[in-house]
Design a protein that fits this description.
By secondary structure, the chain is an alpha+beta fold. It has 20 helices and 24 strands.
C-alpha cells in the first residue's frame, strides 16, 4: 500500500537506483553465494518496479552507433494495445527515421549522462493514434536509456481551451458596450474594463483608485451609498439597478447596473462582479414606462393566462403578471431574478436567444414549448408573441397559455381513435371475407339481386376499411411511430405503377389522364415507395372525385435541389376561405360533388405528414370554379442514374 501512494517520479527514481546497484554489484565481481542472492533479489525488485511503473517506459540499449529497443513495461503494452512487442530489437534509426530529433535526444542523454525532458506531438506507429506526450530520457549505467512517455493530450487540450477561453473573454470584455467591473468587500474597484472610458471618461487605472459610491453625484451620494451598501450586506444578485454617475467632464450619466456576489471556495464574501450599461438616452422612456405601470398592471393582472414583457435588447423579463410565477410555482421575488432558460425545457439558452431574434424579424410568432415548474413538473405551453414598441424601445409581449390538460385530452382521444381503428380491422376483414365467399358462389348459388346487395355491402366494407386505415395511419404519425422504408426508384417506374391503377378510374368518369415527366436522363428519387404512392393516390383520387369533365394531370419537375410533383385538375376548385385549413385533420372542404363523395377528412392531413417525414413540403394553388394544383416536394433526395446526388 505504501508503494501505491508513491508518485510516478519517486517510482522512476527508485527504478534508476535499483539499476545502479545491480550494475555496481556486477562490476564488483564478488563470487560468493550471498552476493549472487542479493543480486538476484535486486534484479527481481528492479523488474517488479519497472513493470509496475504507471508511465509507459521503454528500455533502449546502446548498440554501436545506434540504440536498440530491448524491453518495455506493462503501461507501454497498454498504450500500444500490445503491438510494442513487434518492435523489440528494432533500431532507433529505423523506428524514428522520420523523427531525427528523438534519436538526437536519446544520444545526448547517453553521452552527457543526464536526464532530458520535453513535450512533443507523437503518432504511435503501433496504433496510428496521435497524441501529445511528456517524454523523459534517463541514462541508466552502463549502456541503457530509459524513455518514459506520459500522455498529456487532455492536459494540453485543457490548457489550450483555457487560453482560448481567456482570449475570447478578453476580446468580449474589451469590445463590449457595457462596462465590466469588480469591487472588493469594501466597494473599491479592483477591475474596470476599457469601456469605462467611453462611458465615464476615466481610464481603467483611474477608476481603480475609487470606491463605487465616489462616482455618485455629491448631492445624492449618501442616500445612494446607503441603498447600495444594504445590497452589499444582503449579498444577493441584483439586476438593472438604475443609478446616476458623474462623468469626468461633470455631466450626469445614467447607468443600469447588474451584479453578482463573489465568494471564495470557503464561501467567504469577496465583493461583487457585474456590468453597467449606459442608459442615459433611454431614461426618459423608462420613466414614461414607469408612469404607465399602474394602468398596465390593472389590465394584465386580471388575465387568466400568463403575460410577460421581454426586453429585446437584453432578453430579460421586464414585467410579468402574477399568473406567470404562480403557474410555475414561484413567488414574485424568486421569479424576478430568473431568466427564460431557467424554466424553459424545449430550447437551450442559445436557441432561446435565436428565437427572440426570429420573433423580432418576423414581428410575431405562435408556437408550443414546455416549461418546468419549481416542483419539477413539465407543463405544455402555447405561446403567442408579438413585437410591441414602448417609448421607442422594442419588447416582446408574450401570452403563455397552459395547455397541458388540453394535450392530455388530445392524447386520450388519439389513443381511443387508435384503439378503435385496431379493433375495427379484424371484424371488417372477417365480414368482407364472408361476403366474398358468398359472392364467389363457394357457399352456394345466389341470384342477381343478392349479388347486387352483397356487392354494395362489400364496397361499404372496403370504405370502412379505408376509414380505419386512415385513422390508424394518423394515430401512428402523431405518436411518432410511422417509420419510412426508403429506397431508390425511378420516376418512370413509379409513374407506370400509378398510371396502371388510375386509368380505370379516369376512364369511368370520361376524363383524360396526362403525365409529364422530365425529358432528361432517367431520374431517381430516394423515398418510401408505398408512402409516396399513398400521397399520389390521395391527391389523384381527390382530383378525379371533384372533376366532372376535363383532365387530371400528373407532372414531375427536377429542380436544383429538389423534385417537385404536381397533381392538377380542371374540377370545381377550392374557395379561398377553405385553403388555410385544407391540410388539417377531419377537414371536409367545399368541393362536394354528391353525397357519396365525402371521405374521412384525413387523406390530405396524412399526405402532408408523409411528405414532411421525407423532409419535403406540400401546398395548394386553387381558385373556386377553375380547378386545383396540389404540389409537394422532396428536397435533397434527387439523383440521376445510379449515382446519388447528396445535395
Amino acid at each position: 500500500m505504501k508503494d501505491e501512494r508513491k508518485t510516478k517520479r519517486q517510482l522512476i527514481d527508485e527504478l534508476i537506483e535499483l539499476r545502479r546497484q545491480i550494475t555496481e554489484s556486477r562490476k564488483s565481481g564478488v563470487p560468493d553465494e550471498q552476493a549472487e542472492h542479493v543480486l538476484r533479489q535486486s534484479e527481481g525488485k528492479f523488474k517488479a518496479h519497472y513493470r509496475g511503473v504507471p508511465i509507459p517506459t521503454y528500455i533502449w540499449q546502446r548498440s554501436g552507433e545506434d540504440f536498440v529497443l530491448v524491453d518495455y513495461n506493462d503501461a507501454a503494452v497498454k498504450i500500444t494495445e500490445g503491438n510494442v512487442k513487434d518492435f523489440v530489437g528494432v533500431k532507433a534509426t529505423e523506428l524514428y527515421h522520420d523523427r531525427p530529433e528523438i534519436q538526437e535526444e536519446m544520444l545526448q542523454c547517453f553521452v552527457e549522462r543526464a536526464s532530458i525532458k520535453r513535450e512533443m506531438p507523437y503518432r504511435f506507429k503501433t496504433t496510428g493514434r496521435t497524441c501529445y506526450l511528456a517524454v523523459s530520457y534517463v541514462f541508466v549505467p552502463p549502456d541503457l536509456v530509459l524513455v518514459h512517455t506520459e500522455d498529456i493530450t487532455s492536459r494540453r487540450k485543457a490548457e489550450q481551451d483555457l487560453k482560448t477561453s481567456e482570449e475570447r473573454f478578453r476580446d468580449i470584455v474589451d469590445n463590449a458596450l457595457e462596462w465590466i467591473w469588480e469591487v472588493d468587500s469594501d466597494g473599491k474597484y479592483t477591475y474596470a474594463s476599457p469601456a469605462v472610458e467611453k462611458i465615464l471618461g476615466y481610464k481603467p487605472e483611474e477608476v481603480l483608485k475609487k470606491h463605487f459610491y465616489e462616482l455618485y453625484p455629491p448631492e445624492d451620494r449618501e442616500g445612494l451609498k446607503k441603498v447600495a451598501l444594504e445590497v452589499f450586506e444582503r449579498r444577493h444578485p441584483f439586476r438593472e439597478l438604475i443609478n446616476p454617475n458623474v462623468h469626468k467632464n461633470g455631466k450626469i450619466v445614467w447607468l443600469s447596473r447588474s451584479g453578482l456576489p463573489i465568494v471564495d471556495e470557503k464561501g467567504e464574501f469577496l465583493g461583487y462582479r457585474g456590468a453597467d450599461m449606459d442608459i442615459t438616452q433611454h431614461e426618459k422612456a423608462e420613466q414614461a414606462l414607469r408612469d404607465s405601470e399602474e394602468l398596465y398592471r390593472a389590465i394584465f393582472e386580471q388575465a387568466a393566462d400568463s403575460i410577460v414583457l421581454i426586453d429585446v435588447a437584453t432578453g430579460t423579463l421586464v414585467e410579468f403578471n402574477d399568473k406567470t410565477h404562480e403557474n410555475l410555482g414561484y413567488t414574485r421575488e424568486e421569479f424576478q431574478v430568473m431568466k427564460i432558460p431557467d424554466f424553459e425545457v424545449t430550447e437551450s439558452p442559445e436557441e432561446v436567444w435565436k428565437h427572440i431574434l426570429r420573433i423580432v424579424k418576423q414581428g410575431s410568432d405562435t408556437f408550443e414549448t414546455k416549461h418546468r415548474t419549481k416542483s419539477g413538473e413539465i407543463r405544455d405551453i402555447l405561446v403567442n408573441s408579438r413585437i410591441i414598441s414602448i417609448s421607442g424601445r422594442q419588447f416582446i409581449q408574450g401570452i403563455w397559455r397552459d395547455v397541458t390538460e388540453e394535450k392530455r385530452v388530445d392524447r386520450l382521444k388519439d389513443e381511443f381513435v387508435s384503439t378503435v381503428s385496431h379493433e375495427f380491422g379484424t371484424p371488417i376483414s372477417i365480414a368482407k371475407e364472408g361476403i366474398t365467399l358468398v359472392l364467389d358462389g363457394i357457399l352456394g348459388e345466389i341470384n342477381e339481386k343478392q349479388k347486387k346487395f352483397l356487392g354494395t355491402a362489400r364496397d361499404n366494407m372496403d370504405r370502412l376499411a379505408l376509414i380505419a386505415s386512415d385513422l390508424l395511419d394518423m394515430s401512428r404519425i402523431e405518436a411518432g411511430m410511422m417509420q419510412l422504408r426508403q429506397k431508390s426508384i425511378s420516376i418512370k417506374s413509379l409513374m407506370q405503377r400509378l398510371i396502371f391503377s388510375f386509368e380505370p378510374k379516369v376512364k369511368r368518369k370520361g376524363l383524360k389522364l396526362e403525365v409529364n415527366l422530365p425529358k432528361k436522363e432517367e431520374l431517381h428519387i430516394y423515398v418510401d415507395v408505398d408512402r409516396i404512392t399513398q400521397v399520389f393516390t390521395n391527391l389523384v383520387d381527390n382530383a378525379i372525385k371533384f372533376t366532372k369533365e376535363g383532365s387530371v394531370e400528373i407532372s414531375i419537375r427536377a429542380k436544383e435541389d429538389e423534385v417537385e410533383c404536381c397533381v392538377a385538375d380542371t374540377g370545381t376548385g377550392i374557395s379561398r376561405e377553405n385553403l388555410s385549413g385544407l391540410f388539417d385533420k377531419f377537414t371536409q372542404f367545399g368541393r362536394r360533388a354528391g353525397p357519396g363523395q365525402k371521405g374521412t377528412g384525413l387523406g390530405l392531413a396524412i399526405s402532408k405528414r408523409i411528405v414532411e417525414l421525407h423532409g419535403g413540403r406540400i401546398w395548394v394553388e386553387s381558385e373556386f370554379g377553375k380547378g386545383s394544383m396540389f404540389y409537394f416536394s422532396l428536397p435533397g433526395l434527387v439523383f440521376q442514374g445510379n449515382e446519388r446526388d447528396l445535395r
